[in-house]
Design goal:
single chain; mainly alpha; Rossmann fold; 4% strand
């Protein structure tokens, strides 16, 4: 029993004892914390302990409220801000977590200049933070607090490679710095490096096996590499501990959707929304199933959430979901208004330079001549395993993938990042301001180097292959910009270009919020430029490597499915198999936005859907430069 009359030392002993109880018996730790607070009302460390105990027993909302009170009592406590940041992150409030972590860093440093940088981070004034941190680290290169702040800044603006480098340096200087290691695992996951991310998470879980945030991220990583049963098990384990955590129900829903358990995924998304009505990503996840129709009550709840205090990420997700809701209701103007606002908000927080894509296409056309390829004929890795399905997103590529994966000799994997990673490495760029050596650097590679790159790609893809089928599909759409590289390092791979009417394809991208990548898709004019660059690049490939790429027009696939499937299989060199005609019966994990659409027969109603929105597509038409008027004549 702790009483107010007892000396300070007794209180410290009680706190230390309660902290030891947290992992073994959080309910007893909560009881001890409440006794401490009865003896010393408003005691900041007592409130921290109570918040941690509440979180450990699944009462996250109460934990966050208690930790906010603790932070108000002692705003200089780094431990309190870290605990609050962890709970906000786990509840799905990324912006709130960022602010709390920034306060944690500020509380950890004593120098006035670093405190100013931390305040700037907390207020999302990134330019001020950067102007302070870079000179500081030039003078104090081993300052772990400053390193982590700069990594936080890099991660916020999408410079994940820079964030990784900084976080590794922080961990090198302080190996037990668990928040930095967790941040590193997150950055590695964002960079499509699942094995590296799992290694960091396993280190963290070895010390804290019951840490729900670590377990949740591990589930997401396992999903990415196709270990869906394990991933689902991870999420279910977290939910047994934390059944009131909205963001985990949402992650669970993602995993269930991928394996085709649609009813269960809908229930999981609905559960996450019941726990947190303003969780925009959960609403968008329901919309993104493409088969769920929102009720009037759903629309009212989303509109009410937009009126509340929510972060930008929740806000743009809600706009995308409302765009889908009003589209289903044939309220075209309202639908477009929400799609446009979602895109505007999303465009504000991403980094995209349309000139870079145009420059890459132009330089590739200059380099890749018939003579260039003829001089390197027979080089590269000999394997014929990969089938690359590429082109614009939302062009029917998932349908083509599902058809091919229904063949008994072909395995469907996912959108593999390996070709993009190779191209980035070959560019030699450490920062956006550096000039790129790609694709010109390919002229410097000899036969042995080209072969090694092909073998490296095959080795990287191996983790995603779960069967012994001789062929596998890489469905990364953006590989269209790297067909020259693919041909050089994997000359026997098959390449399929899926194409769709420019307005239909581009508007479908505009109303689609992508979890990552596709930065071109959040402005109609930039989308049109990207589509035009893609068409120009593929036209050049057709000219210098005639017959190398097989093109599938989505409208033709819808109109005469069997003829298109037979032509597709002929190009790949596979015998016709009736299972390809009944592709929707193939049970496999599908991770793209079209996952539910390819689990039913081909439907025709979506082909002309863009025409309802044509009055608002002027910027897109202008950027396309006439491609929409001449389709499919310019499609090869």
């Amino acid at each position: 029993m702790v009483t107010a009359s007892e000396p300070r030392g007794t209180l410290d002993v009680a706190l230390a004892h309660a902290r030891r109880l947290l992992t073994r018996d959080p309910m007893l730790a909560e009881e001890q914390a409440r006794e401490i607070l009865r003896a010393a009302p408003g005691h900041a460390q007592g409130l921290l302990l109570l918040g941690q105990a509440l979180a450990a027993t699944g009462r996250r909302a109460d934990a966050i409220r208690t930790l906010r009170e603790a932070a108000g009592r002692d705003p200089e406590s780094a431990d309190i801000w870290r605990a609050l940041g962890d709970q906000l992150l786990f509840s799905g409030d990324g912006a709130g977590a960022d602010a709390a972590y920034a306060h944690q860093i500020r509380a950890s440093v004593n120098d006035p200049e670093l405190r100013r940088a931390a305040i700037a981070l907390a207020e999302n004034d990134l330019s001020v933070a950067e102007r302070i941190l870079k000179p500081w680290l030039a003078e104090h290169p081993t300052d772990v607090a400053a390193i982590r702040m700069l990594a936080e800044l890099a991660g916020r603006i999408g410079r994940n490679a820079d964030a990784e480098k900084l976080l590794r340096r922080a961990i090198e200087l302080s190996p037990s710095f668990a928040p930095a290691r967790y941040n590193l695992a997150t950055v590695l996951h964002r960079q499509n490096r699942p094995l590296d991310a799992l290694a960091e998470l396993d280190r963290l879980l070895a010390d804290e096996p019951d840490n729900a945030a670590y377990t949740n991220l591990k589930g997401a990583v396992l999903s990415r590499i196709g270990d869906h049963d394990q991933a689902i098990g991870q999420f279910e384990a977290v939910l047994r501990q934390r059944p009131d955590t909205a963001v985990v129900w949402m992650s669970y829903g993602h995993a269930l959707k991928t394996v085709g358990r649609q009813e269960d995924s809908v229930a999981a998304y609905r559960r996450s929304i019941d726990l947190r009505a303003g969780l925009g990503e959960a609403w968008w996840s329901l919309a993104n199933l493409k088969t769920v129709r929102f009720t009037a009550g759903d629309i009212s709840r989303m509109e009410a959430a937009l009126e509340g205090e929510i972060g930008t990420e929740d806000r743009f997700h809600l706009h995308f979901a409302l765009g889908k809701a009003f589209e289903d209701a044939a309220a075209w103007e309202a639908s477009f208004r929400h799609y446009a606002e979602g895109n505007r908000l999303r465009r504000q927080v991403i980094d995209h330079d349309a000139d870079e894509t145009s420059d890459l296409v132009s330089r590739s056309a200059s380099l890749f001549t018939p003579a260039f390829f003829e001089a390197r004929k027979g080089q590269g890795a000999e394997a014929a395993d990969p089938i690359f399905v590429l082109g614009m997103p939302r062009s029917g590529s998932t349908l083509v993938e599902q058809i091919l994966a229904s063949h008994p000799l072909v395995e469907g994997t996912r959108e593999l990042p390996d070709i993009l990673a190779l191209a980035h490495r070959l560019s030699g760029r450490k920062a956006r301001s550096d000039p790129s050596r790609y694709p010109e650097v390919l002229a410097e590679l000899d036969a042995a180097q080209l072969r090694a790159l092909g073998e490296e790609y095959l080795e990287g893809a191996r983790i995603h292959r779960k069967t012994d089928r001789p062929y596998f599909i890489d469905k990364m759409p953006n590989n269209w910009a790297h067909v020259g590289l693919i041909h050089l390092i994997l000359p026997n791979a098959k390449i399929i270009d899926t194409r769709r009417h420019p307005l239909g394809c581009c508007f479908s991208n505009f109303k689609q919020h992508f979890a990552r990548g596709q930065a071109f898709s959040y402005a109609l004019d930039e989308m049109g430029r990207y589509y035009a660059d893609y068409v120009a690049a593929m036209a050049h490939v057709d000219a210098v490597l005639p017959g190398r790429v097989h093109r599938v027009l989505h409208e033709a696939m819808v109109a005469d499915t069997e003829a298109e499937i037979r032509a597709l299989l002929d190009h790949v060199g596979l015998p016709f198999d009736p299972a390809c005609l009944r592709f929707w019966e193939t049970e496999r994990a599908v991770q793209t936005a079209s996952s539910e659409q390819v689990r039913r027969p081909i439907f025709r109603e979506g082909v002309e859907q863009w025409r309802h929105f044509e009055p608002w597509l002027g910027p897109l038409k202008a950027a396309l430069g006439g491609l929409d008027r001449h389709y499919p004549a310019l499609s090869g």
